[in-house]
Amino acid sequence: MQKLRVVIADDERPARLFLRNILAEFQDVEIVAEAENGAEALEMIKQTKPDLALLDLQMPELTGLDIVKALKKNQLPLVAFVTAYDEYAVQAFEINAVDYLLKPVDKQRLRETLQRAHERLERADLRELEMKRLNSAIQTYEITSSPEYIERIPVKRKEEIFLVPVREVISITADGELLHITTLSNRRYTINYRLKDLEAKLRPDKFIRISRSALVNLEMIAKISPMPGGTYIVTLKNGQQLPVSRLQSKVLRERFLKM
After folding, report:
1. By C-alpha distance, which of 206, 211, 249 is closest to 230?
2. Quick one: pLDDT at residue 254?
3. Which terminus of the chain has fewer CB atoms gathered within 10 Å of its CB, N or C?
């Protein structure tokens, strides 16, 4: 049996290591690349052309679903999503018969996913069906998952809890395990939380990710300054300046800087 060329993508290093160690036990698998975020995964898939991509559903900048949507038909490998339990995702994947693995990944379940990948690679009609299932699953997930967005962010300081109104938040930046929340009045709060988890609780029409480590309130942007290499610097209404990553500069340009 020919070896299955696999790409692993997960922004959490322990999760990547866990998956890599299990895959190393299988004789019919070759790991051709590992990615720690969605943007990196997208480029690695284009470069290495794997047979199968194991994609974390939620990653910074680009999610597993975003990667699938960004790839052209001839670039798309077989895909299995790796995710913590998400009722809407599981429902969408099961309805459309799309492969998924729940964290922590079970070795036997992964073996079954690899076996199905081998079978689909051998039949062109199954590859075509796989792509249709993926697109259908994404549509199902996006329709059914309607998150309840928060209006206030609870911040604990010693024995007190402050409720910071989301409308007053100007930026949220990540520093290791901590998030720094800055308001229009330049008050600063720090919480222990993951940026991608907080991003999921904020309205996407109000907050935009400008880099792997920063979110900004769209209504609080004072100006956007072009930089060499096609990137930008965002200046907020409190005077705070934040760089925009190359990938998010493209998003910013397409979504907001064109008439």
Report:
1. 249
2. 77
3. C
List the domain boundaries for the chain: 4-144, 152-256
- The pTM of the full predicted model, rounded to 2 decimals, is 0.63
pLDDT band (50, 70, 90) for residue 153: very high
Rg of the chain in Å (alpha carbons): 20
H-helix or E-strand spanning residue 254: helix 246-256
- As a CATH number, domain 4-144 is 3.40.50.2300
What angle, 0 to 180 degrees and rounded to 10, lies between the N-to-C axes of helices 13-23 and 107-122?
70
Q: Which helix (H) or strand (E) holds 23?
A: helix 13-23
220: closest CA among 235, 204, 209, 233?
235
Cβ count within 10 A of residue 206: 16
- Give 173-224 pLDDT, tens digit per residue: 999 889 999 999 999 999 998 898 889 889 888 999 999 899 999 999 999 9
**DSSP state letter for 28:** T
Fold of 152-256: OB fold (Dihydrolipoamide Acetyltransferase, E2P) (2.40.50)
* Res 259: pLDDT: 67
